Amino acid sequence: MPQITTITTPFILNITVNCYLVNTGDGFILIDTAKSGQRRAVETALEKAGCRPGNLRLIILTHGDFDHCGNAAYLRRKFVAPIALHPDDSGMVERGDMLWKRKQPRFPINALMGLLFRLAEADRFTPDCYIKEGDDFSAYGFEARVIELPGHSKGNIGLLTAGGDLFCGDLLGNTGKPAVWSLVDDPAAMSASVEKLNSFDIHTVYPGHGQPFTMAQFRAAHG
Q1: What CATH number did the domain enclosing 69 receive?
Q2: What is the residue-level pLDDT of the chain in tens, covering all 223 positions?
C-alpha cells in the first residue's frame, strides 16, 4: 500500500488545511499544495519525506481554491512536476479569481472574500492536464481514480484508491466532527455528491480540512 504523509498548515483562524504526499514506492504524488504563505513549510515536509526534483511525478489539485493550489505553480517549477485539475475550476487558477464559475455571492462577505482570497499573479498557472470522472493514475504508480464531487466548487473532485482511501477535497471536513464541509457553493450539488459516496466502498476519508476519519464515523455523525 502507498505511504501517505499528511502536511498540515494554518489556513484561517483555528482552521488548518491539508496536503497529502503519497509515496508510491517509485516516486511521489502530491495532492493539493496549501496557500502560498505556507510555502516553506510545504517544501520542508516534502524534503523530509525524500521528495526531490525528479521523483515528484504529479501534483493533483482537488479544486481551485487558493488554500489548495497556492504553491502549485512554484512546486511545478522546482520539482518539474505536471499539475492536474478538473477543467471546471481552471479559471480560478488561471485568473486568480476564486469566484470563477461559482454562483453569484449571496452575501457581501462572500464578495469581500472573493476580493481578498485571490491567487497572486506569480502563483497563477494553466494546468498541464485536465482530469474528469473515471480517470486513473496507474501510469504514475498510484492506484486511484477520479470521482467528481461538486458542491463546494464546480470542479471539486475526490481521489478514491484501490484500498478504499478517499481524498475528498472540500466535500467533507473534520474540524470538530466528520461533517459536510461548511462552505457550500451549490447546496443541491453538494447533497448529490455526499449521496454519491454511498456508491463506493470507502474506508478512510482524507479531507481538505481537519483530521482523517472513517466513513463509518461520518455516517454515524451525519446520519
Answers
A1: 3.60.15.10
A2: 689 999 999 988 789 999 999 999 999 999 999 999 999 999 999 999 999 999 999 999 999 999 999 999 999 999 999 999 999 999 999 999 888 888 855 544 555 555 567 899 999 999 999 999 999 999 999 999 999 999 999 999 999 999 999 999 999 999 989 999 988 999 999 999 999 999 999 999 999 999 999 999 999 988 6
Q: Where are the alpha helices (H) located in the chain, listed in sequence order?
A: 39-48, 66-69, 72-79, 90-95, 108-116, 187-196, 215-222
**Contact at 8 Å (CB) between 60 and 35?**
no
Residue 26 belongs to domain spanning: 3-162
Full strand arrangement of the beta sheet holding 213-214: 136-137, 142-148, 157-161, 165-167, 204-206, 213-214
> Is residue 104, in this structure, part of any structural domain at all?
yes
Residues in the chain: 223
Residue 116 lies in a domain: yes
Q: What total of structural domains would you count in the chain?
A: 1
Residues 160 and 124: their CA atoms lie apart, in Å, by 27
Neighbours of 106 (CB within 10 A): 8
Q: Would residue 168 count as lying in a domain? A: no
Task: Write down the pTM of the prediction.
Answer: 0.95
